[in-house]
Amino acid sequence: MSAICVIKGDGVEGIINFKQIDNKSPVVISGVINGLKMGKHGFHVHEFGDTTNGCISAGAHYNPFKKEHGGPNDENRHVGDLGNIESNQDKKSIINITDNIITLFGQKSIVGRSIVVHENEDDLGGGNTPDSKITGNAGARLGCGIIALSKI
């Protein structure tokens, strides 16, 4: 199964592809986002596929199992916690992530939800503030898009 997400924001744009062979396989996430300042940026699946009020309409991180925020390799993490992407000096972020928690199949599918790219680095739940275990202190939402099924 395949899905796609077109990211748009103020000066930020990109295309993210998702591929999953079957419901037991990991999801391979690939793509490019342009326009982010150099450095790391939080990259998450959010609960709603709604951008009617910009990226704020996407809601919180997708968290159907009611866990704390964490890193992509942590057992205790939101389903939507995909960690960070990194933008180079040309403001280009090349994405190549494999994740075993998200799925394109079944009731907990991420299809119809959204991807949000944040202003700051996600601290992966290891910070010393209350927001660390909720958002990873990743800051403002710079770009987002709805995850939809695709042919490719």
Write structural notes for this entry.
It catalyses: 2 superoxide + 2 H(+) = H2O2 + O2. The protein has no helices and nine strands. It is mainly β and 152 residues long. The protein has strands at residues 2-9, 13-19, 27-34, 39-46, 52-55, 81-87, 92-99, 114-118, 141-150.
Keywords:
152 residues; mainly beta; 8-stranded antiparallel β-sheet; 0% helix; antioxidant; copper
Instruction: Give the strand order, joined by hyphens, for the main sheet.
Output: 6-4-8-9-1-2-3-7
Q: Structural class of the secondary elements?
A: mainly beta
* Structure summary, number of beta strands: 9
Order of helices and strands: EEEEEEEEE
Which overall shape is indicated by the principal axes computed on the Cα atoms? globular
The residue ranges in which pLDDT falls below 50 over 5 or more consecutive positions are: none
Distance between the termini: 8 Å
Which sheet architecture does the biggest sheet show? 8 strands, antiparallel
Catalytic activity: 2 superoxide + 2 H(+) = H2O2 + O2
Biased composition (Basic and acidic residues): 66-80
Cofactor: Zn(2+); Cu cation
EC number: 1.15.1.1
